[in-house]
Design brief:
The chain is mostly helical and 143 residues long. It has one domain (13-141). The protein has five helices and two strands; from the N terminus they run ββααααα. Strands 1-2 form a two-stranded antiparallel sheet. The longest helix has 21 residues, at 60-80. The protein is flat, with a radius of gyration of 16 Å. The relative contact order is 0.15.
């Protein structure tokens, strides 16, 4: 969790080998890319059934899967009824459900919703995103 005055930083995930998610380190300096890989390995956030280092007691993947299911359902609802009220409701749902990166992935083609998530989740660094809520390139990988 970010401390007061500190911002969370985003490293995007992309599909990896065997269908797992891995940090998209293409825009990062090699030392920072290595750090992102090491952080993923240390935290085990990519472990789910089928992962070589998965342990039956690790149930974190279930929360992410639930968040993904809820976010995909919310996107379908928004596609049927795109109103300011629905967008506000979905933003509130995302806060209650958590897993910011899941919501950012599911709504990746809706800049307005992305901006709402960036604004809504405490500690998210708005300066890391441009006007369309795409992550800002960081030459040399500077965070």
């Amino acid at each position: 969790m970010a401390r007061p005055g500190q911002h969370l930083r985003c490293v995007h995930l992309r599909p990896g080998r065997r269908g797992e998610r891995e940090p998209d380190t293409r825009s990062l300096a090699p030392s920072i890319a290595q750090g992102a890989q090491e952080a993923l390995k240390l935290t085990g956030l990519d472990r789910r059934p089928g992962h070589p280092r998965f342990r039956p007691g690790d149930r974190r993947w279930e929360g992410r899967k639930t968040a993904c299911d809820v976010a995909q359902h919310a996107l379908a609802l928004l596609n049927r009824q795109d109103t300011p009220e629905m967008r506000e409701l979905i933003t509130n749902m995302s806060l209650a459900q958590g897993h910011w990166s899941v919501w950012m992935s599911v709504f990746s083609s809706d800049a307005d919703m992305l901006a709402r998530f960036v604004d809504a989740f405490p500690g998210t660094c708005a300066a890391c995103f441009d006007a369309e809520c795409r992550s800002v390139p960081r030459p040399g990988g500077r965070l």
